[in-house]
Amino acid sequence: MRGIGMNIVDMHCDTISEILNHRRRGESCKLRENTLHIDLERMRGSGYLLQNFALFVDIGGQSSPWDEVCALYEVYREELEANADILAPVYTFEDIEKNRAAGKMSALLTVEEGAVCQGEPEKLERLYEMGVRMMTLTWNYPNELGYPNLDSRVGKKVWARCRRLREDGCTEEERADIQAALARYLGTPDTERGLTERGREFVHRMERLGMIIDVSHLSDAGFYDVLRYTEKPFVASHSNAREMCGCVRNLTDDMIRKLAERGGCMGLNFCADFLETMPAGQENPGTIQSVVRHAKHIVRVGGIEVLGLGSDFDGIDTNRELSGAQSMERLWDALHEAGFTEGQLDQIFGGNVLRVYQEVL
């Protein structure tokens, strides 16, 4: 069994949002050590080089998305200061190497939900000044920039119906109807609505700034609009292969090829529902082998250079076999046993993402 070394690069986690949620409930929660999926002590023990920390905003529950992203930023800034002995921020690619040389892990700040800018280019510029170097154009709501494949307003109604499956008295006809509604919701991509005019303006500005465009959550039409209106590599920070799991949060084979041709990268997401399809109401605990299947398919379609990691830790239900930062060596071993060479694993666990960062940041 080979030690991974200080090489892991993970393109997405929601740990900062979870820390703020705990604090708002009056609970002590810190980045150094906690009971979440990710903390710095476990990252250091597992061989992390760099973690992208997302400022995630659910605009469905916010009167001011901008105020919320600023509140999250304050948590991130405080945790950077409190852990400056082992963690340092990344603003340019050179910072990653500088931090490594100093024996520190790197933190790259991202935003998950372009609506925090409220369509104002000045807010995008402000995010860049704050240190944000990657942003998803949408989460699960339409916004000023574009449209997602999944809409939480619809999803809340579908998931509420799914809870009926656990209740006594649900007829077979009702079960079939609920199952069909879930399949439609998870399996129907938006191939018509992509980037808005303001969204096209934003991706041009992001490229000029040196901020990485993240197409995870974006509609199918939006993916192809990004491809059409940009020139630099972009990423799908936490998306899997739709051929292996039909949820439209995943990328089609054509998207994987196009992303690879652009020199971009996609991150394996450990969310069980994006790894394997289960009937409505049936437990989906998550397995390492399902991650391996996606990895093999993505590499078969797009080549080894397109694949990275995007765990979605602290933004998903716990994957039973990949329960946190401490699980990365188990994933390395499973992929190695499945036939990936150590050189290929070096690329997946960090090298491919670093290549994109070097070109764009």
Write structural notes for this entry.
With 361 residues, this protein is an alpha/beta fold. The chain is built from 13 helices and 9 strands. Strands 1, 2, 3, 4, 5 and 6 form a 6-stranded parallel beta sheet that branches. The chain has a 3-stranded parallel beta sheet with strand order 7-8-9. Strand 8, helix 11 (288-302) and strand 9 (307-309) form a beta-alpha-beta unit. The protein is globular. The two termini are 34 Å apart. The relative contact order is 0.14.
What is the topology?
Blueprint: E1 8-10, H1 15-24, H2 40-46, E2 48-56, H3 65-82, E3 87-89, H4 93-101, E4 105-112, H5 121-130, E5 132-136, H6 152-162, H7 172-187, H8 197-209, E6 212-214, H9 220-229, E7 235-236, H10 253-262, E8 265-268, H11 288-302, E9 307-309, H12 328-337, H13 342-360
Parallel strand pairs: 1-2, 2-4, 3-4, 4-5, 5-6, 7-8, 8-9
Helix content: 40-55%
Along the chain, the helix and strand elements come as EHHEHEHEHEHHHEHEHEHEHH
> In oligomeric terms, what are we looking at?
single chain
**Structural class determined from secondary elements:** alpha/beta
What is the mean pLDDT?
Answer: 95
Radius of gyration, Cα only, in angstroms? 19 Å
Count of helix runs:
13
Largest sheet: 6 strands, parallel
Overall geometry: globular
Indicate the proportion of strand residues: 5-15%
Residue runs with pLDDT of under 50 for 5 or more positions: none
N-to-C CA distance: 34 Å
Number of strands: 9
Please give a quick description of this structure.
The protein has 361 residues and is α/β, with parallel strands linked by helices. 44% of the residues lie in helices and 11% in strands. The protein has helices at 15-24, 40-46, 65-82, 93-101, 121-130, 152-162, 172-187, 197-209, 220-229, 253-262, 288-302, 328-337, 342-360, and strands spanning 8-10, 48-56, 87-89, 105-112, 132-136, 212-214, 235-236, 265-268, 307-309.
